[in-house]
Amino acid sequence: MAAPWLRLGAERLFEMPAVLELLSRSNSTSQAFAEVLRLPKQQLRKLLYPLQEVERFLAPDRRQDLHLRIFDPSPEDIARADKVFTVTEGNRIDYVSSAVRIDHAPDLPRPEGHTKKMNFFKVGKHFTVVDMPGYGYRAPEDFVDMVETYLKERRNLKRTFLLVDSVVGIQKTDTIAIEMCEEFALPYVIVLTKIDKSSKGHLLKQVLQIQKFVNTKTQGCFPQLFPVSAVTFSGIHLLRCFIASVTGNLD
């Protein structure tokens, strides 16, 4: 299985179509966020801070193993960040172009299915999202020329997001992608997807294993994991806020 990417720069850049769809889904943006803030405390915590929800199932002496509050914005900060992703007449989220190489970015129809090119999306005037092909058996033949060159040579990139399936955990293709980020000294973040598909016990087990991997095997990875669900929207608001923060849109 290919390891999907999400690259964020300050053009400013990031990577991954499914997450982009999540981040810009109009019926979940700030006009609805006021309603989110009215949720009961436990529901609000589960939606905004999913790792803090599973933390309570850990023994007190194990909680220090998780880095839950390195990035710990208030609900008010999250509400401000949500506006960056709210589609309005003056703040559009548009597919711009596809490119096989850095110097080749023609206007093409929006691609469907597995990503074979780098696809650029502008999020208003704030930053650009770059959806990149996954690293694995489905990777395009020119992956090295296309992706590795891009990652090494772009100097205005803010963050790379590596998407890991929380159901199966870190796979061989993920470790290859992680090793690339480490080799290129790229700041990157691990986003855990599909957290709605696991029981709390299984999710906690995977989170602890992945967190141990991050703590002991990486140097450039942001210590805090970002679990998300495309179904329940859990964790998406926090991820949006982190993106707004690292691109200077939360100041």
From TrEMBL:
SUPFAM superfamilies: P-loop containing nucleoside triphosphate hydrolases. The keyword Nuclease does not apply. GO terms for molecular function: GTP binding; GTPase activity; metal ion binding. Transmembrane segments: none annotated. Keywords: GTP-binding, Magnesium, Metal-binding, Nucleotide-binding. GO terms for cellular component: mitochondrion. The keyword Metal-binding applies. InterPro entries: EngB_GTPase, G_ENGB_dom, P-loop_NTPase, T_Tr_GTP-bd_dom. CDD domains: YihA_EngB. Residues 66-249 form the EngB-type G domain. Its cofactor is Mg(2+). Belongs to the TRAFAC class TrmE-Era-EngA-EngB-Septin-like GTPase superfamily. EngB GTPase family. This is GTP-binding protein 8. It comes from Colobus angolensis palliatus (Peters' Angolan colobus).
